[in-house]
Design a protein that fits this description.
Length: 202
């Protein structure tokens, strides 16, 4: 018999799956890739095409593990408390490292990084506060936010201005358009999550 669902828009986390499973291993791999990614991004002052492309490749691989571990956890019944908590932390670590690295290189303004990371840190705290009542599931807006952030960072990681100097204006317009979309979704979904967390706590 299935356990009752808690109220307030949260869903319980399964406790029967073994802690050591492929989904959690992929989450740990994503965490381990973060310092590798940072080293590649900052190599040669971020101005070397090879290292920037390498950083982009590592970022894409890490981002793909995010999608894969979630699918495996759900399809194979491998959802655990560790995965529910470690997965968003790994995501924040990857996105945060990318944004901070890009800001250090002067590619992304620091205020953009602060807004996005401030939102992510706040949501992470809320996850811990409401964890006893279950995990608030990701909304469509939250998933769209993640896709937009990943896409924007990917575009900014690629050394497009170095590869296409004659089309610099067009490249910057595309990069900034996607980044602004990601920023708006980050703020809007953050507000939505706070509302859901408050309802779950009452």
């Amino acid at each position: 018999m299935s356990s009752p669902q808690p109220t307030g828009g949260t869903v319980p986390v399964g406790g029967q799956a073994p802690l050591l499973n492929i989904a959690n291993a992929l989450t740990c791999l994503r965490l381990l890739l973060v310092p590798v990614f940072v080293a590649a991004l900052l190599a040669e002052g971020g101005e070397d095409t090879f290292w920037r492309t390498t950083a982009f490749t590592v970022f894409v691989v890490a981002a793909l593990t995010d999608r894969l571990d979630g699918q495996l956890a759900r399809s194979r019944g491998l959802v655990t408390w560790f995965g529910a908590l470690a997965d968003p932390i790994a995501d924040k670590a990857l996105i945060g490292a990318a944004l901070i690295g890009l800001s250090v290189l002067g590619i992304v303004p620091w205020w953009v990084t602060i807004v996005i990371l401030g939102r992510e840190a706040g949501i992470t705290v809320l996850r811990f506060l409401v964890i006893r009542r279950g995990v608030i599931p990701a909304s469509r807006g939250g998933k769209a936010k993640t896709v937009a952030q990943t896409f924007a960072i990917g575009l900014l990681l690629l050394p497009l201005p170095l590869l296409f100097p004659d089309a610099l204006t067009a490249v910057l317009v595309v990069q900034w358009t996607v980044l602004v979309v990601a920023l708006v979704l980050t703020v809007v979904t953050g507000i939505d999550y706070v509302v859901k967390a408050v309802r779950a706590a009452t």
